[in-house]
Amino acid sequence: MTNGGQAQIGNVDLVKQLNSAAVYRIIDQQGPISRIQIAEQSQLAPASVTKITRQLIERGLIREVDQQASTGGRRAISIITETRGFHTVAVRLGREDATLSLFDLGGKLIAEQRYNLPERTQETLEHALFNTIEDFINQQQRKLRELIAISVILPGLVDPANGVIRYMPHIQVSQWPLVANLEKRFKVTSFVGHDIRSVALAEHYFGASRDCADSILVRVHRGTGAGIITNGQIFLGSNGNVGEIGHIQVDPLGERCHCGNFGCLETIAANGAIEQRVRALVHQGHPTSLTAENCDILSICKAANRGDVLAAEVIEHVGRHLGKAIAIAINLFNPQKVVIAGEITEANRVLLPAIEGCINTQVLKAFRKNLPVVRSEIDHGSAIGAFALAKRAMLNGILLQRLLEGAHTQE
């Protein structure tokens, strides 16, 4: 009897969360919008919309604005979201450093700072990271009105549902309960996610794929990874990790990858691999404007854009292998858009045609029709991917409901 009652209460809470989220999402994406229009689009009763909007207004999350009267009569009242007073500390945790950003709910960057974090154990990294977050919050006190979330993205294997880090590429971690520890220390709702998957979500909310529900983002940096968006959501799979495109074998006779396999895409399409290949060709005496001392990824891209034959051939070689793996992903997921990210996109005039050439020969005709391949539009050095996790939690109602319940508790 008791269990049935608890299940019923849980269902009521879930319905409340979903309804509030539906109303907030419509206002956020389409405001200014009237209550009548919200009711029509959400298919909720006008009385329910009125109740939810009243709660959101009382919490300061939305506000009313006057709209032009169409043909005389009184002005219609419309609603927009209020974003300026609610802040998220977003953290992009790298191998040696952390970028901390302060965003308002509209995705506006308020402040940003980079910290060195050369820690090598889970305990020392957590200690240093938490002190860094505290220092950043203290520095931003004059700009900070209400901190509603802390969000962290990082490389490795992440269990976002339970807030646990299972693996990181550069330090030993053992079921690191990062979210629970953040919430205990800072007393604020916290989130954690994989860096590239979260960046794909940020691209969907704020960047090149905001006009479509299904997209693939492929990023070339230290390695090669992908984030897949299906129906506006990150595709995560059963254990929260999908998109290891860098470990598709593209050359069975290729170099050994750190994963133990041979000829993974990552052994060809990663900044270090590209730089190493150019350096080797320079030492062999191939004509080029590049030198062995000056062949970092951006110099290579600039040289390729200028028509340097060696640089262009290396970028094209990378593009063809990237294209093979991307073609496989397109045949599997049938996206509406492919977004390429990373420093290598500086050579987009050489890179993108090489990728598109593979897509045109290796992808099903129906899947490649009207399929744009474009550069990323967001700053991958920033922590906007981490902010995207907090934005998602507002739109799906998880964070929104906590804010509403917090207001109820304070009354």
UniProtKB/TrEMBL annotation:
Keywords: Carbohydrate metabolism, DNA-binding, Transcription, Transcription regulation. Residues 25-63 form the HTH marR-type domain. The keyword Metal-binding does not apply. InterPro entries: ATPase_NBD, HTH_MarR-typ, ROK, ROK_cs, WH-like_DNA-bd_sf, WH_DNA-bd_sf. PROSITE patterns: ROK. One of its GO terms (molecular function) is DNA-binding transcription factor activity. Belongs to the ROK (NagC/XylR) family. This is Transcriptional regulator. It comes from Izhakiella australiensis.
